[in-house]
Specification:
Elements lengths: L4 H4 L6 E7 L5 H11 L3 E3 L11 H15 L11 H20 L6 E5 L2 H11 L10 H12 L4 E6 L2 H10 L11 H23 L5 E6 L5 H26 L7
Parallel strand pairs: 1-3, 1-4, 2-3, 4-5
Helix pairs in contact: 2-9, 3-4, 4-5, 5-8, 6-8
Length: 251
């Protein structure tokens, strides 16, 4: 994946890319292949409480989230700690991306990023998240991440292949070892939620979308096509900044 010198020299305008897909679709394999092919691609870390540099983001955004969490009481379960961390991530992660943009990376790749977290909250979060009191929060998140994400790489596969991969690998997963019907229902629920989140993002701004069926497309083919799109989108970012004279990175 070659990058022109004129693109390398730009500052604070990396391509922000999210890698999404159902379990077993090959996201980890592709992320490794892309980072090996392009030294200027940064696979971003998630916000983690055990990292001292990440603590200020939690400290800043968790208090402001509390009124949202307490909004619209409904007689259903409370938020889990993982869901609260996901909501903090969604609000505070663009701040961390701005800091990471200073390392002159051509692109920053997000795995288990905002679309994944929004889709998980949408499909499996407490019912109160679907109440009118949370509509403002959802729209704020859609607008924030629509202005942040430049590209989405969506990996798909047949349900049979995905379930076989989940069952054959060492990692734990909720549907590992379950019946094909139960596993398919779980994956279908995630798929519909992903689609719903993308539709809502498009209302504010449509990121470039690349979709691949990993049941029929090799990792090498995907890397080549993604590389071509990377170069095209990075050129667009560079030209846009040069013409406007300002950074287009979201504030």
């Amino acid at each position: 994946m070659q990058t022109p010198n004129s693109i390398v020299s730009r500052q604070n305008t990396p391509l922000i890319v999210e890698l999404v897909g159902l379990a077993g679709a090959g996201k980890t394999t592709l992320a490794k292949a892309l980072s090996q092919q392009n030294a200027e691609l940064l696979v971003a870390d998630e916000l983690q409480l055990r990292k001292i540099t990440h603590l200020p983001i939690f400290a800043t955004h968790l208090p402001s989230l509390l009124p949202v969490l307490l909004r619209s009481y409904r007689p259903d379960r409370w938020f889990t700690w993982e869901e609260i961390k996901a909501m903090v991530y969604l609000k505070g992660w663009p701040q961390m991306l701005k800091q990471q943009a200073a390392n002159n990376s051509t692109a920053i790749l997000l795995d288990h990023g905002p679309i994944f977290k929004l889709a998980t909250l949408n499909a499996f979060g407490p019912k109160r998240l679907k109440s009118p009191g949370f509509e403002g929060w959802w729209q704020e998140m859609f607008k924030l991440w629509a202005s942040t994400l430049d590209m989405v790489i969506w990996l798909e596969g047949s349900r049979t292949n995905l379930i076989e991969r989940i069952n054959s690998r060492k990692q734990k997963h909720f549907v590992k070892g379950k019946s094909e019907q139960e596993a398919s229902q779980f994956l279908d629920r995630y798929q519909l939620s992903y689609e719903e989140i993308l539709v809502n993002l498009k209302r504010y701004r449509e990121p470039a979308l690349l979709q691949f069926d990993t049941s029929h497309t090799s990792v090498g083919q995907i890397v080549d096509e993604v590389g071509d799109m990377f170069n095209l989108k990075v050129r667009e970012l560079y030209v846009n900044k040069r013409e406007t004279g300002v950074s287009i990175y979201p504030h």
